[in-house]
Design brief:
By secondary structure, the protein is an alpha/beta fold. The protein has helices at 21-32, 54-64, 79-85, 91-100, 117-120, 134-143, 163-170, 209-216, 255-271, 301-317, 333-344; strands spanning 10-13, 37-40, 45-50, 73-75, 86-87, 105-111, 125-129, 147-148, 176-179, 190-193, 200-203, 220-221, 246-251, 276-280, 291-294, 322-326, 349-351. The longest helix is centred in the last third of the chain and has 17 residues, at 255-271. The protein binds threonylcarbamoyladenylate and magnesium ion.
Length: 352
């Protein structure tokens, strides 16, 4: 057992429009001294440490209980940093950076010598992204070092979309939590591997394959590899986003049929004495279940993305036995939503 001082973590509320300089300075100093700072990005909260300090990066893995072969994204505030952290940047990657950065797009590139292998899970490639969130950018700039940061949750749990989730999962394992309120997007960045002749999406996100395709002409999806022995992205083989309760996703082309199946499953489980939670949408009819939570609107899937992880955590708080979820169309950000939902459900998907 490690002995942590009782006062950890220090929680600092920060203005998201104009982050207070003195607060950012305190957090940056912790980063420079090899400590851990949780901070908001536009997608989810990250658990940050100095990316070129191997001990600091190793402490991220310990705090999250993260498998050591699952590499971490390095966050930069300045494109110049990318030239120090990588080698042989393809022209196309430069163009993507110019267009999509700062923003929720992570690029996998060949790593340079200064990136420690502990950050890349032993790989010769490194994941890099420049977030647009003001607090992230100010923290990275003020630290003067690139910041390695996975999502700030315990490995396997839903990603944190507010400071409360971070504190619940990591508590005293973090030195400082910068609390900038709920995150904007709610699902993690799109991860695009640029080391292949045809770039490959390893994780879908709010920057969609449709948008990337416009730029790249052709693109591969790593989706089919999810269950392979050696997936392209090491993170894919590990358990992800999982709530404590069982979960089933119902998907299909006809919303009415999805609804009917969700209600049928709810009755089936309630008849067995189970406590049933349903993740519904504002278009859903009134369900009969123990707990029904509206995730957002099918007409604007961004609303669902924003609430997704908060809702999964909420069902855990309410101790439901089973979570039933209405699937959405796998288009645009719907692909990212379904990716997270299917993983959270350990691929228990019913197609109707
Ligand atoms: O939006 C985000 O990306 C958030 C915020 C904090 O920036 N970060 C995040 O990090 O989601 P994490 O560690 O939870 O997810 C990173 C994903 C993992 O699936 C990991 O396996 C993959 O990126 N990854 C990282 N480096 C890689 C590499 N060199 N090659 C292949 N996949 C890599
Ligand atoms: Mg994560």
């Amino acid at each position: 057992m490690s002995k942590e001082p009782a006062c950890k973590p220090v929680i600092i509320k920060v203005d998201i429009e104009r982050p207070e300089k003195d607060k950012i300075r305190i957090a940056a100093e912790v980063i420079r001294n090899g400590g851990l700072v949780a901070f908001p990005t536009e997608t989810v909260y990250g658990l940050g440490a100095d990316a070129i300090n191997p001990e600091a990066v190793a402490s991220i893995f310990r705090a999250k209980n993260r498998p050591v072969d699952n590499p971490i994204i390095v966050h930069v505030a300045d494109k110049e940093e990318v030239y120090k952290l990588t080698e042989d940047i393809p022209v196309m990657a430069e163009e993507l950076m110019d267009f999509f950065w700062p923003g929720p797009l992570t690029l996998i590139l060949k790593k340079s010598e200064i990136v420690p292998y502990v950050a890349t899970g032993g790989l010769d490639t490194v994941a890099i992204r420049m977030p647009y969130h003001r607090i992230s950018l100010d923290l990275i700039s003020e630290s003067g070092v690139p910041i390695a940061a996975p999502s700030a949750n315990t490995a396997g749990k839903p990603s944190p979309t507010n400071a409360k989730h971070v504190i619940y999962d990591l508590g005293a394992k973090v030195d400082i939590v910068l609390d900038g309120g709920p995150t904007i997007i709610g699902v993690e960045s799109t991860v695009l591997d640029m080391t292949y002749p045809t770039p490959k999406i390893l994780r879908p996100g709010v920057i969609t394959s449709e948008e990337l395709m416009e730029f790249l002409g052709s693109i591969d999806m790593a989706e089919i590899e999810m269950k392979n022995e050696t997936p392209t992205s090491p993170g894919m083989k590990h358990k992800h986003y999982a709530p404590n309760s069982d979960m089933i996703v119902v998907e299909g082309g006809d919303f009415k049929i999805i609804v009917r199946k969700v209600q049928e499953l709810a009755y089936e489980h309630m008849n067995k004495g189970k406590k049933v939670g349903i993740m519904a949408t504002s278009e859903s009819p009134e369900y009969d279940a123990d707990i029904v939570t509206i995730a957002g609107s099918r007409a604007d899937l961004n609303t669902i993305a924003r609430n997704l992880f908060e809702i999964l955590r909420g069902f855990d708080d309410q101790r439901v036995d089973i979570i039933l979820v209405e699937g959405v169309e796998k288009k645009g950000i719907g692909l990212a939503i379904m990716d997270r939902l299917e993983r959270a459900a350990s691929h228990r998907v019913i197609r109707v």
